[in-house]
Amino acid sequence: MRASSSARATSLVIPLFLLIQTSCAQYEIPDVTIRALKPRGFSASIPDAPNVSLFVFQGNVNRPISNNDVGTISGEVLRAKAGRWTVEDPNLELKIGDIINYYVVVSANRAGYIKDNLSFTVRALEDRLATDGPIPTECKPTLTQVRGGSACAGQTIFEENFDNFRDNVWQIEQYIPVYTPNFPFVSYQRLVSDPTVSVSDGKLRISPKLQQKLPGFTDDSIYSGTLNLFSGCTSSAEACMKQAWGADILPPIVSGKITTKGFAFTYGTVTVRAKLPQGDWIYPEILLEPLLQKYGTLHYSSGVLKIASARGNRELRSGTTDYSNRVLFGGPVMDLQCHDTLLNSKTSTDGLWGDDYHEYSLRWAPDRITLSVDGIEWARVEPTASGLRGRFPDTCTQLPRTLLEQGSRVAPFDNHFYITLGVGAGSITEFPDGVKTANERPKPWSNPSRKALLNFWQDMDSWQTTWNQPQLLVDYVKVVAL
């Protein structure tokens, strides 16, 4: 990664110094490898290690630097590449005899470490094709694959701490999910004022809103208006505009969704620390979704992995079965008709899942998919001898069995997937028919009904008052290679 601006480096280094003062020496920063390149160029790197999440370099050429200065060579890296954390400045022109005085800061195990009073004397200018030493011996093989890159066992291949919103990493989606199999009652929009997606205080916030409250819309607009999202639309044309007609009203909820379509991988452990939304008929979207749709685009044929979800209703039952925010669920989805076949659930004995932050993890491997919360495994899904498809009865006729036979035992989960974070509402899969919320009030729509969207919106007076904490709050996201 190229060396960054002084302002950006300062914002990262100062908070780290505060953390360094209280951290224990559980990690030792290795020797820094520095290369001066010809005709110009500079790089400083350290080998990757488990749980490293940040590498900062600050240096001055031919003049001293203290450990709270921002140097003329200033850079930070949030991800290792080819087994090393590397800060680069391709335009720095060095001469033989130049002395680089520097210090480095590393964040590991969510604590900060500093190594200062260092210096490097340029004794030769290296060719750009030279290597940094025995990197291959430091990189243990892994089953994890990274789109457009490589990975080493135990390496952090993606990390986001939401110190700010990085448009080069995340895409804010804008479209109407007309082709999404579960048909959520929302549109995803990138709003300029009162945004659905924002970052503040080191947290990602995804906040659903009422479409009728946005400028240019009224209650009547939901029945007869037009929703035009063409400017900035991130999907196909059919998903960029909708005209309300009869019972097919406009999506009454405006929500946010972000995806890492620039980053995709196969196999690894994903960890998301988040506080789940609460409010009747809303739910979080913390997912891995398929990049290439290799096994088809209909009925979840190419699969979705739910890292964690919990319905927003504080109370929700069908008979004696609890479906409320007290119940965490997750796992693979690979068929719309038999949507819940591979999903698992865990009931909290200590409050609701949305009452506090929790660390949700999904370990995706070629032989099993494992779910954990706060470091404790709570579910695993394993294929049969014939693969995951063998877990489905013959009555699940939408499953693309012939195509799945061409894949691995965990097909369709054997291709690149990307990360999705969002908030949904309603839908035809997330809330079973027959459930009742507080005061024995029934779910206002039937999943198979063509009036599902309309019936949901017409019951707004009962559910809107429960939306006291409708935001999905995310502290960090991390992906580690197997």
Automatic annotation (TrEMBL):
InterPro entries: Beta-glucanase-like, BGBP_N, BGBP_N_sf, ConA-like_dom_sf, GH16_GRP_C, Glycosyl_Hydrlase_16, WW_dom. It is found in: Secreted. Residues 1-25 form the signal peptide. Coiled coil: none annotated. It holds the Pfam family Glyco_hydro_16. One of its GO terms (molecular function) is hydrolase activity, hydrolyzing O-glycosyl compounds. Residues 27-127 form the CBM39 domain. SUPFAM superfamilies: Concanavalin A-like lectins/glucanases. GO terms for biological process: carbohydrate metabolic process; innate immune response; regulation of innate immune response. Transmembrane segments: none annotated. Residues 130-482 form the GH16 domain. Keywords: Glycoprotein, Immunity, Innate immunity, Secreted, Signal. GO terms for cellular component: extracellular region. Belongs to the insect beta-1,3-glucan binding protein family. This is Uncharacterized protein.
